[in-house]
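Input/output pair, single chain:
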Amino acid sequence: MKTHRLLLALSIAVLVCIESCGTARPVSQGTYYLIATNVKIPYWQWALAGLNHAASQLHVKAEMLGPDTYQPRGQHEAFQRVLSLDPAGILISVGDRRLMRADIDSAIARGIPVFTIDSDAEYSKRLVFVGTDNYKAGLMMGATVEDTLNGKGNLVVFTMPEQLNLVQRLHGLNDALTGHAGLKVTQVVDMKGDPNVVTDITKDMLGKSPGKIDAFICLEAIACPEVADVLSSLKVPGKLVVAMDAEPRTLDGIKKGLISATIAQKPFTMAYVALRMMADLNESKLGNLDRNWLGSPVSPVPALVDTGVTLVNNQNVDEYLKESSSAP
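Output:
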């Protein structure tokens, strides 16, 4: 009887240990890093909130690094610094896919997992992309333009041609406009991640020929609030303005009628999901990461995770703001 009780007690202790060990993440995993550019803008502060929320749940350390302005070279330097710290893993929104490809492949060769979020690095050895289906976001922009302008108008597009996510959005936009001969992209502007460039170019365009522009399309977050400010200051009415992301100034512009709509991404979700996936991957101890996971039928991770988007306009902006205020 004593032996039976002892065995029962030991069995219960083992079960408790298994249960507790299976739900807690060891701090010994090291520090995870999210590397972006323009890290001070609200978009990346939302991502940081998602990163910190996941890190708190998993009991791991996580930090966000990167230049305060759009500087792909600065992102490259931040990545190199992180590699010297022997990180548990790296999440990166790639500013220049050509510049960062070798860095990503180098980290994978050293056994450091790398996920891309928000902006991918095609042909690199990153393990997973977590973010928006940017081609579909471009299609959504095009559908908004078509519905609002009734198939006729001249469009100006602001973008940054080195970022793959913006290339994909432009592709989707152009495909959505195919077959609508009356809708024409008359100018694609490289705004270089600088709001001052947007302001100056918009003023110049409207000063020369305001009647020749029917719509401004912004494929990234910071351009359309500047466009809206210029339209307001010059008192130019009746322009369609389609933005990207849910910056506070963008949502305020929608409420004021200066911005027609925006395609809101989920940066909180991107960082949250990516960190949880990466921590789980580390727990599984895959060993050699430098394999063709993309082509493998037994890959332990998906090639991409689509976090979705929301079209926000004057009809649902108040509801969107209410939902945003209830985030963890």
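Residues 28-132+267-308 form a domain with the Rossmann fold fold (CATH 3.40.50.2300). The first helix runs from residue 2 to 23.
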